[in-house]
Design goal:
The complex is a heterodimer.
Chain A: E1 3-5, E2 10-14, E3 19-21, E4 24-26, E5 33-39, E6 46-52, E7 60-61, E8 64-69, E9 74-79, E10 88-95, E11 105-107, E12 111-116
Parallel strand pairs in A: 2-12
Antiparallel strand pairs in A: 1-4, 3-9, 5-6, 5-10, 7-8, 8-9, 10-11, 10-12
Chain B: E1 4-7, E2 10-13, E3 19-25, E4 31-38, E5 42-49, E6 56-57, E7 65-68, E8 74-78, E9 87-94, E10 102-103, E11 107-111
Parallel strand pairs in B: 2-11
Antiparallel strand pairs in B: 1-3, 3-8, 4-5, 4-9, 5-6, 7-8, 9-10, 9-11
Classes of the chains: A mainly beta, B mainly beta.
Chain lengths: ~120, ~110
């Protein structure tokens, strides 16, 4: 079965500092995608970044970047220059087995990030 | 362009009551999904619909039914609500064979 593990239930960072959130996954797929979603107190799930498994280059979106280690099945999220608005739950997710053309996501349990002023 | 919308935002039910959660998307997506989010459990897939007229079970389908009314709308029905169904419910959609799912704002359901 597809699994995603986030080993850090909570993390904290000082404003303007850098923090890394960990994620490991297990999949039998050869072609898959990985995602980080942010969930602020408003509850909305917001896509932060995504990585295609076939791409060697790590994805980057402004202050957010990933360290994708395919052999180790590791997909960590680095947030640089942390801002108060980055405080949220962060969920790692992978695309599950392809059935009927629909792309099901499997989520980790989340990491709660606190940003201290 | 509203994206994915869900109604209602909040709902309180008594055990045994029924209700339907509504979801609609205006992005012309083929695939739609229902997830539930419980504390400490992350999001778990209840049902999904790869295209209009098709539905499939996800990880936790028991106690739920779904209807893909048309391409835009995907509803989730609780026939006889139980306290174990107290949760936050999210609807999501994605373009056919495209992997980014876009989520609605969620419905907080409490079953007493």
């Amino acid at each position: 079965a597809q699994t995603v593990t986030q080993s850090q239930p909570e993390m904290s960072v000082q404003e303007a500092e850098t923090v890394t959130l960990s994620c490991t996954y297990d999949t039998s797929e050869s072609d898959y995608y990985l995602f980080w979603y942010k969930q602020p107190p408003s509850r909305q799930m917001i896509l932060v970044i995504r990585q295609e498994a076939y791409k060697q280059q790590n994805a980057t979106e402004n202050r957010f970047s990933v360290n994708f280690q395919k052999a180790a099945k590791s997909f960590s999220l680095k947030i640089s220059d942390s801002q108060l608005g980055d405080a949220a739950m962060y969920f790692c997710a992978s695309r599950g087995p392809r059935q009927g053309g629909s792309e099901k996501l499997v989520f980790g349990k989340g990491t709660k990030l606190t940003v201290n002023p | 362009n509203a994206g994915v919308t869900q109604t209602p935002k909040f709902q309180v039910l008594k055990t045994g009551q029924s209700m339907t959660l509504q979801c609609a998307q205006d992005m012309n997506h083929n695939s739609m999904y229902w997830y539930r989010q419980d504390p400490g459990m992350g999001l778990r897939l209840i049902y999904y619909s790869a295209s209009e007229g098709t539905t499939d079970k996800g990880e936790v389908p028991n106690g739920y039914n779904v209807s893909r009314l048309n391409k835009r709308e995907f509803s989730l029905r609780l026939e006889s609500a139980a306290p174990s169904q107290t949760s936050v419910y999210f609807c999501a959609s994605s373009a056919h064979r495209e992997d980014t799912q876009y989520f609605g704002p969620g419905t907080r359901l409490t079953v007493l």
